[in-house]
Write a structure and sequence with these properties.
CATH class of the largest domain: Mainly Alpha
Number of domains: 2
CATH superfamily of the largest domain: MetI-like
Mean pLDDT: 85
Largest sheet: 2 strands, antiparallel
CATH topology of the largest domain: MetI-like fold
């Protein structure tokens, strides 16, 4: 039975279906919006107890943004995220391209690669701490001509943290890239074979354009997660040696542990604004990419 134009118009302008998402909106407000408003409110107060709060305005923001410590931690966090993206994105693409196609081996590969993603996040640094503390690991690096000293050498500590994160999260990039590769029609590969296109040309003009969307999503997810690194660096070497691995999240953690709730709230808001800005940039880029494809 077909609808006439009047009934169709009523259905199009009927917004009552939005009530179906009302429970989700209420849940989001409870777990995200209300706590965020509370944190913003705390960032403008000097808090001794929950009942003793004194308005200080922008004092915590001026104090935090005016310190060299904040900008040093901010720079280290950006550097770490850059290194993570530099390692995990190309490595994930390479593994996705190297995986078998249309075979039972695909399931085995996915299971093996996804195992690190199933490990609780707070266990990752403990596992790696135990691993790199073994004598045979040191002997292996000595064999390579490297005296591994991740406790007192800042470069070695960074190497261990980057390696730990790459082991944990590269699988996510692989899964996203492989999912986009499976949507490419065989007709494109057949046309490339007829034209005798090189392997690089196939990647450049067929596979990479198809992966752009998921790659931008992977970059955003990995940036957000790596920029908020805390547990790995704290459990491995507590921000050391010196302050070489003190990231923004660790500065925030120190304020919380010291019961400096006002400065901690201000740091959280600054942190949130940085992540929000980056997310907006990626959202805009994704929208532009979508409009070009359309």
């Amino acid at each position: 039975m077909t609808l006439n134009n009047q009934e169709l118009s009523l259905n199009i302008h009927n917004n009552r279906a939005w009530f179906l998402v009302l429970p989700s909106v209420l849940l989001l407000a409870f777990v995200a919006v209300i706590p965020l408003i509370s944190v913003i409110n705390y960032s403008f107060h000097d808090i001794f107890t929950q009942e003793s709060k004194y308005w200080v305005g922008m004092e915590w923001y001026r104090e935090i943004l005016g310190t060299e410590r904040f900008w040093a931690s901010f720079g280290r966090s950006l550097l770490f995220s850059f290194l993570i993206l530099l390692v995990e994105i190309p490595l994930g693409i390479f593994i996705a391209l190297s995986m078998p196609k249309n075979s039972t081996l695909v399931a085995i590969c996915f299971v093996l690669m996804s195992l690190p993603l199933l490990i609780p996040w707070n266990m990752i640094p403990i596992i790696w701490y135990t691993f790199i503390s073994q004598e045979y690991v040191n002997e292996f690096f000595v064999f390579l001509g490297i005296e591994l000293d991740w406790k007192f050498n800042a470069v070695h500590t960074w190497f261990a943290i980057v390696l730990m994160d790459a082991w944990h999260w590269t699988s996510l990039v692989v899964v996203l890239c492989y999912s986009s590769l499976t949507t490419i029609s065989n007709a494109y590969y057949q046309a490339a074979a007829i034209d005798r296109a090189s392997r690089w040309s196939v990647f450049r003009f067929i596979q990479l354009p198809k992966m752009v969307g998921v790659l931008m999503m992977a970059i955003l997810l990995r940036f957000m997660d790596s920029f908020m690194i805390y547990t790995e660096a704290y459990r491995l070497n507590a921000g050391g040696p010196g302050n070489s691995t003190m990231f923004l999240a660790m500065d925030l953690g120190e304020d919380i542990f010291s019961f400096n709730y006002g400065p901690a709230a201000a740091r959280s808001v600054i942190y949130f604004l940085v992540i929000l800005t980056v997310s907006w940039v990626f959202k805009t880029a994704l929208a532009l990419h979508g409009s070009r494809e359309a």
